[in-house]
Amino acid sequence: MKKSQIIFLLFGIVLIVVLYSLPMVVVDNQGEGAIEEEADLGNSFNPDNQHNASLTPEAQSLIDKLKGEMEIEEDKEKFAIFADSTGAIYAERGKLDSAAYFYGLAADNSPTLEKIEKAGSAFYEAFTYSMDEAKTAALAGKTRAYLNKVLESKPERLDLKTKVAMTYVSTSNPMQGITMLRDILEQDPTNESALFNMGILSMQSGQYKRAAERFEDLVRHHPGNVQGQFYLGVSYFESDQKNKAKKQLEALKELTDDDQILAAVANYLERM
């Protein structure tokens, strides 16, 4: 299970989102391009809310050097190299906002599909960890701006379309995202990401029987999806299918050693 995934632990009927510490590091206003890009992101990036794991002196020194190079670099390709390297340093240390910002600068100055997708995916990852409404909206907008460019050239990339769809779910028009996910499932009925997210959305709306159906489809075709296995058990529990829930959650204990999931499993089993 990827560390970047959001782990939902459900106690009772409340969906509790368990996140790693939010990496809200504000990048410096270095150079005209950087100033313009940060302005696009809005002012919802709070400089006081920093990631717990601060940069080492060595990493900070390297970032300062790279930013200095960007300030004076006139060649866009070289500028993109410096920006991408800076983004990589932030990404390695979990500072997702800053990583996305610099990957975005790299894509803007050297707009290859690879760099555009990298930027969009980075903004999406930051989006999944955001709990501030204004910041979430800004990150969602950036995700769509970059990934839609890739989809224009590669409409078959359903994985990217799923990410775009999920950015709409938290807006005032969530049905747009849900409709996109349904379209994806029409094209690919066994799409892992779409099935998972449709199951989560069903749970959030209290439609646990429908959620169970989604997760049954998910684990039938993707048995290694541990989170899906967990939510299937929870969906059974919440839809009053206690025997199925117990069997599913007991079996899950053999599939994972994730402490958070196992704690949630124990909580549900104690309530049966």
TrEMBL record:
InterPro entries: CellSynth/LPSAsmb/PSIAsmb, TPR-like_helical_dom_sf, TPR_rpt. SUPFAM superfamilies: TPR-like. The keyword ATP-binding does not apply. It comes from the Bacteria. TPR repeats lie at residues 192-225. The chain crosses the membrane at residues 7-26. Keywords: Membrane, Repeat, TPR repeat, Transmembrane, Transmembrane helix. This is Uncharacterized protein. It comes from Lunatimonas lonarensis. The lineage of its organism: Bacteria, Pseudomonadati, Bacteroidota, Cytophagia, Cytophagales.
